[in-house]
Design a protein that fits this description.
Helices cover 29% and strands 19% of the residues. The protein has 304 residues and is α/β, with parallel strands linked by helices. The radius of gyration is 21 Å and the shape is globular.
Amino acid sequence: MSARLPIAALLAAALALPATAQPLPPRPGATRNIAAACAGRDGWADPAPPARIFGNTYYVGTCGITALLVQTQAGLVLLDGGVPEAAPLVLANIRKLGFSPRAIRWILVSHEHYDHAGALAEIQRESGARVAAGPFQAQALGTGQPDPGDPQYPMLAKHSMAPLRIEKTMLNYGRLTVGGIDFTPAATPAHSPGSTSWTWRDCQGIECRTIAYADSATVISAESYRFSDNPKRIAAVHTGLGAIATLPCDILITPHPSASNLFDRMSGVKPLVQAGACRAYALAAAKRFDERLASENATALPPK
């Protein structure tokens, strides 16, 4: 005859929820309405209050540039830091949430431009965190020098960026596991040669979602640069946008919050979870890139 558990034990087991399913307490200093807090302000160094996005993922950036903090059972993970002037703002937001910067274990980067990675050297010094570079970021992040093959190189060369200490370089679609959360990088070289999008799974109550920190999809260049003269760069853009379109993506977050209407979605004005958001984001960028190529071809000088 099979052993029977006491009814009380069966009820307890049925009602028990895993740690991730418990109600999440509010964090000190976090706002529920970041849209109102940043209304009329979108400067890259305009201070913003910290705010919960979903589960244990928080916004700690400025009104114009995203920085994310993910709480895990083994410490914190920071994604991006903004312009150099934003470093003290990001650190202050982390403290407002009740965390110590020394609890940051890893720093991840969307792309290797000063407006998103410029603050990270100071944050790394303050926190002692390790940096896991995306598949094609290590050279630029480790030297602080932009990639000469970047279409934005002449503009980027005017802005210094302190080098980072790189602990490891991730493989494309590899996995960095921190405190039970898997952070997966995808090379998405549309905006820059080292553009990387990151995805992870987070839970709020019994609801779990995949968060996609999809890198910038805008295709920007120096004034004299012609994509039409650089077929390899065109191919890279198409590869990058295709990879963004296929990301697992319940909640889309972008390095510039305005690019995904993030603040309205965080504040409840619009839905936070949007089906097909990454695909729509990539398709809109692809349309703009096609228009750019058409414009270049229309203005090309006739052959002599």
